[in-house]
Amino acid sequence: MEGVTKEVQELLSTLPKERGWRTTQCLYNYGGLWNQAKQIQAIISLQSHFKACDSDVIWLKALMFAMANPIMHVETQKFFDIPHPRLFGTHTHYPLLPESIKSSKCKIIYLCRNSLDNFNLTELTIEEAFDMYCKGVFYIWAFWDHILGYWKAGLESPDKFLFLRYEDMKAGALPYVKRLAEFMGCPFSDVEDRDGIIEEITKLVDTSQSSYHFRKGEVGGWGSHITLAMADRLTNIMETKLSGTGLSFKSDS
Prior knowledge:
Elements: H1 6-12, E1 17-19, E2 26-30, E3 33-35, H2 37-49, E4 57-59, H3 63-66, H4 73-80, E5 87-89, H5 99-103, E6 107-112, H6 115-118, H7 126-134, H8 143-156, E7 161-165, H9 166-171, H10 174-183, H11 190-194, H12 197-202, H13 211-214, H14 228-242
Parallel strand pairs: 4-5, 4-6, 6-7
Antiparallel strand pairs: 1-2, 2-3
Keywords: Transferase
InterPro entries: P-loop_NTPase (IPR027417), Sulfotransferase_dom (IPR000863)
Domain Sulfotransferase: 46-246
């Protein structure tokens, strides 16, 4: 198996296995979540080698993928030699993060989106993919488990976590840009505020230029992809999963 060590291949042979979202890939249940083989390899590499520093900022995006290719040893070293304070991204589920990230004073920023708009199309039929998504068999994570892992950790350590909803930022990014700057320890000065610097930065939050992550970036865009019956099913699942947690999402159809 290309890009996966013999040790991890042996581990994969012991894990529950399901058909993947792409016809050439399988998903394996590791740590309670479904991942592709290379993602599990990356998670294990991350756990073994990454050491967090107190000044680090972890943005939930793609840290583990930067370590997934074993032939990029030199680049991996440069990755660790980034000047401080370091900014990293990851998709990794909270329980699977290296212990140094959890125990250090590094900051973690989590940006999430309503599950209705998070669901996307694959090589499967939309009915097949949606059914797997609702069952939690989704590459990288079971959506609600991933969110709740960070949400609950943030409730326990509010100084370490900043939890953001895409829908809130879409409605008005300015207060969240200010909040993000304060959380990272680099608040805007009164002069920068008066000079319109913050407004200029919020213009960078333009989802129309980032279709890979946000498609059209519209809240409620799910109406163009799934039926009302599908939406009701997923909404009921999310309400059950999030019940009693204090976490909720807005949605427009």
